[in-house]
Each structure stands twice: as structure tokens, then as C-alpha cells.
């Protein structure tokens, strides 16, 4: 039975990280990813003729396994495995597996490499059938490891990796997925790092495109080459070298080669960009028509290189710090020239702390040569998006959510103005002297939250300002009569007052016909989506494609709720995507690997004592523990053993009642001088043994001890009843679990689909949609209650009440003789 995909990745990371010791993550990643590379090509291509990757005899992962425990394991990996692999496939800059300064020496090195190799022997890491259509276990494992290594690498050492979410945004806004592409379509990244951004753009294309990349750091360039192979792009061309000083992609005449698409995440504000280059005499004329970037700010040097590398119909996207939008002097001149020539199609402001090498906010500048002339005209302009507020915290960094990605891409693709988020800014506005080609987003998009103003007149005279109620216009548009049911004029223009008591605000809203109609409409939208997409969910089968499935049902959910009143369709969409990441994705990969029936069977947990990753059991039979990953026992119990569960619930309720009775008796009689005081043991506890001992101690009943004996006997009876009920509960639970475990093996495929699709997936999503409805209603209720409480007591009444209270205090003080002038 296949392991959960997320569990496999986390286990892989934890195992590798455990062996890292004191080595910097930015260096350690090279060793781990090389092992992943060797494992992959060995599984995928070993023994194949005409394979795109050559595996020399004796240089496979199996040969590496044979070196485990040998005293010269590091040297042997270098000489017998990596050396021949590199030579046969034109790879270079492989890490040194015998480097004592990084891996230790002697037994430490042998043990570390032996254990590291053992991690990749996990049977679940079988890449022989790895897919190249977006559902590959390898690509996701690589992304998982790269993200974690980048997180651990610290400032300035995590720049080898562009967050996958940002890469997806860039790929989508370039429009490569909507264009007709062939192998002749070219994509280029002049600062490709480990190649993650370049690959994401390539993956977005309808057909296989040709990838080119240049990377300054030799070790990272080697990593990028391996990454291309790992992601089924063995023909991609990645060259090591300094892109600005020595661009290596040129044509026969020595001029820069041009491409259909160019993307880049260059080092921010590179202070050494001109090393090895004379900008004033640049042979490629990248700065000639725009201006030379300042010596210690290389951002525009990279942007102008991208522009020069685009075909006349090409489009590019570059991640740069926000400073490029507003810094003056030389950069101001370059910015003016770019805008006047119409090359900037759009600007997308991103959240701060998104990238691994820096915490500063960045933006994506989108370049487009095809329509530049039209944008340079008086009717032209730049489409701007301020997406800086859409993210979630993820450890020390921020991450774009699925809804943030989708919102950015949809808005940019449709070029629609959204107040506070996006607008097309005319060239006339940008060039106006008051702006002077400053592209800082807050100049053109006001994304600040409106201030919640205090109304002095309302504080003095009472009433709720109509201005505050009018701000709730989106709600009143959906249920206008609710406002009339809640408020009435306050006796002067511009102010209203509640018709109902504050405690009745929520009931008044929830019981109103317009509100119940709103709930019914949203519920019906979900029911329609459910009816249309249940066949997709139930039709999913072994060897299915999980990413295609989630793409289909998620887009359908977004479209279904696009015009739902008061609900943000992207919020609803995010609930599905969160649940996909937490649960559904693992479920679908289990089904794709094993089929519905096999995937539903509980898995016997065999604990590896050497691993820190432990599987939480869902139930136990005797000493054996099981993980029921696709169908939790609670679902089987609810559908097939409701009566037995009800009996268990009743026993649990009895136990709770008995515990409460004992607690009340102990509280009443267990204190100092109480009838149970002397029945406590040396740990100050009332137990069966201590109570029985006290009964024996006081002997036969007499008038002096009758009350104590009665309480002791009653308490002892409760203890015995508690033990008896507990034993019944344990027996009932064990019997139920045995029946549940047996039921797993009897489930038909149709029954399994009902449990998973209806009882698990759709029930969870229905609850999430209901949660969104609750959030809408709670927001309205909370705001109205806040306004009502804010202006409930006018200042004159407060002053009067304070004076009355002060007079009462003075009177009390006089009676006490505390009088002063």
C-alpha cells in the first residue's frame, strides 16, 4: 500500500535534516539533491537504450548502495559514481562527497553518507514510473526539499530558489499557457538559480518548449542542470557564467540571442553588477537607449538585459525590489524611457517577506514588446495590481495562498479595475508633473483600510451615525428590509437608533426572510456544484491524475460562487484548496496508486525506532496498531454502527455523571473537618482502598460515626459503580473497534466511494461553506453591536451618572468622618 504523499516528503526532509549536523543548509542541499538525482535517473533510465541520460556501468544508485559502510565511501562515490555520470552527461561541479570539512572525517563521514543513502532506499521513492504530466512524485518532492532548504539557509543564501507560488504567478501572467507553443518556442532565464522558475514557466505551456538558462554560481548551475533532468527536461540548456559581464547565449553575429519569453529573479540591488563589464561600451547595447544603471544598484541592468533578450513579439517578467518603481536620478531616467516607449505592460506589488534571500517587498514588472507602440501613445498605460496584503504566514516567511495566486492572475488576465486592488493607469497620469514617471503603487492604488471614525455628536447626543450604517451598503443591498427592521430615525437628520434591544440584534437578522433567503441561495450554489462535480470525484480511479481532478473541481467551485452575494468566491475556493493540501491530495494519490478498495484498507504500523517521524495510529487491535488513512474509523462507525456508538456515548455520559457526583461529594465532605477528610490517602486522594480502609477503621456503626459511615459507603458505591461502568465502556469500545476493523475488509468499492466522497470530502467542504456564511453574518452582527455599544450612553448621561455616583461617595465619606474642603 502506498504511503501518504505528504508523509513521505516530511519524512524525507526530517531524515535528511537530522543528518545535517552543523553543516549550512545551503551547502547540505547539494548532497541531498545529488542523491535524489542519482536515484531518479537510476530508476528511470538504467538499462534503457537511447535514453536521454547515460548511466555508465557501475554508476547507478544500486552501486552507491553497495558502498554503504565502506571506509572510503566518499572517494568511491566521487570516482565511481559521480565522475562517470558527470562526464557522460556533460554535468559539472558535483559536490565532493569526501569533503571532511563539511561531512566530517573517519567514522563520522562513513556513518553520515551510509545513513543518507539509506534514506533514499525507501521503497516509496520509486521513480521508475514517474510521470511527466504534472503528477510526478519527484517534482513535488524536489519542491518540498528546495523550499525547506531555502528556509533554513538564511539571508542571502536562499536566492537559489524562487517560491513556487511566485513562479506560478509569473508563468500565468506571461500567457504562455494560452499561447500556441511548440518545441521552437523559447523560454530564457538569465539568472536561473536552481531552475525552479524556468521550469514552472515551461510546465505552464501547452506543448513542450525549449528552455535556456544562465547562472553565475557554478554549484547552483550544476544543480539547475540536474533539476532540468529531474523534471523531464533533459534537453534544456543551462550554462554557467556571469550573465551581465559575459552573456553566453548569442547568435552567429555575436549579438544577444532573443527569446519568446524571458523570466528572472535576479539578486536584489546587486552592488557588483558591473564587475567585468564596461557599461558605457557594452557590446550588446543593452543600456544605450535607456541610460546606465547606477554603479551600486544593478536592478535595471538585469531588467534591460531581459528587454534586449526579447524578440519583437516577446514578453518577459522580472522580480525586482520596490525601489525600482520610485528611485530617482539614473534609475528615474531609465524608468521614464521604458514607460515612454511602452515596454512596461504591468506591475504587480507582492507581499513583504516572501523571498528567501530578503524580507523586503518586491514587485513583478511585466514587459511586452508586441503592443509597446500602442502603450506609448496617449491612450496607453500600465496595468497595476497591489497584491501586498494577500498572503499567509508560513514559519519565518510569508506565502501566497492559492486564492492570492488565482486573484492576481484573473485580475491581470482580464485587466479589470478593482478599487483598492487594481487599475489601469493612463500614461497621462503617470507622466503628469506631480507624478513624473514615479510608478510607486500607492500613488495610483489606495489600498488603505478606511479609518473607523468616532462621531462626537453621537457621543454627546446619542444615536448611531447613518454614515457608519451606509458603510454596510453591501449587506443592505442583499437584505434591505433588515436595516429597517433593526433601525429607526433617532429624531435628528443623519442619525438612527436601534428598534430592538442589543441582545435581539442577532435573532432579528437570522430570523428575517431576506437573510434566510440569502443562506438558501448560497446553500443551493454549493448543492449545484456538488451535483455537477460528484461524478468527477466518484469517477476518479487508479492511475488517475490528482492535479487534473483538483483543477477541474476547483475552477468549477470558483465559477459557481463568482457572483454569490456577500461571499468572496476566492475565499470559498481557498477552503477547497486548503482541504486539498491537508487531506484530499493524499487521499487521491493513495487511490491513484492502489485503487479505491486497496487504498481503503487500514495499514499496519511498523515503527522505525531510528526515525523521528511517527505515524499516529487510528485504532489498535491487541498490540497491533493501524493507520486508516483514507477512511477514518469514525466514518465507518457513523454509517454502519450508529446504534453501538450511541450505547458507548450513553456509557460515557454515565461515567461523566458519576465523576461529577464524586467531585461534588469530595468538595462537600473532603475539606477540613469534613466527613471524608480522614479517608484521604497519603497523597491526599480519595481512592477505593483509602475509603474502604477508613470504613474498616471506624468499625461498626454507632451514633458518633453514623453520618461518616453513610457518606463513606455512598462514596465507595460511586467508586465501584464508576469502575463497573468503565469496564463496560472499555468492552463496548473494543467490541465496536473489532467490528469496524472487520467491516473495512467487507466494503465494496461503491460503499468506499460513499464514505470518502460523500461522508468525508463533500461533508467537510459543506461545513466550510457554512463557515463562510457564518462569517458573513457574524461580521454584520458584530459591527452593528459595536456601533450600538459605542453610542449607547451619551456624554451628558455619563456626566450625570458620574455626578450621582460622586455624590453618593461623598455622602459615605461624610458618614465616616472623612470630610475635606
TrEMBL record:
A GO molecular-function annotation: DNA binding
S-adenosyl-L-methionine recorded as keyword: yes
EC identifiers of the protein: 2.1.1.72
Catalytic activity reported: a 2'-deoxyadenosine in DNA + S-adenosyl-L-methionine = an N(6)-methyl-2'-deoxyadenosine in DNA + S-adenosyl-L-homocysteine + H(+)
Membrane-spanning ranges: none
Segments forming domain DNA methylase adenine-specific: 135-451
Domain N6 adenine-specific DNA methyltransferase N-terminal: 10-47
Keyword Coiled coil (UniProt): yes
One example of a Gene Ontology biological process annotation: methylation
Domain of life: Bacteria
Gene3D superfamilies documented for this protein: 1.20.1260.30, Vaccinia Virus protein VP39 (3.40.50.150)
InterPro entries to which the protein is assigned, alphabetical: D12N6_MeTrfase_N (IPR022749), DNA_Adenine_Mtase (IPR051537), DNA_methylase_A-5 (IPR003356), DNA_methylase_N6_adenine_CS (IPR002052), SAM-dependent_MTases_sf (IPR029063), T1MK-like_N_sf (IPR038333)
Keywords: Coiled coil, Methyltransferase, Restriction system, S-adenosyl-L-methionine, Transferase
Coiled-coil portions: 641-696
Family membership noted in the UniProt record: Belongs to the N(4)/N(6)-methyltransferase family.
Protein name, as recorded: site-specific DNA-methyltransferase (adenine-specific)
Protein's organism: Candidatus Accumulibacter phosphatis
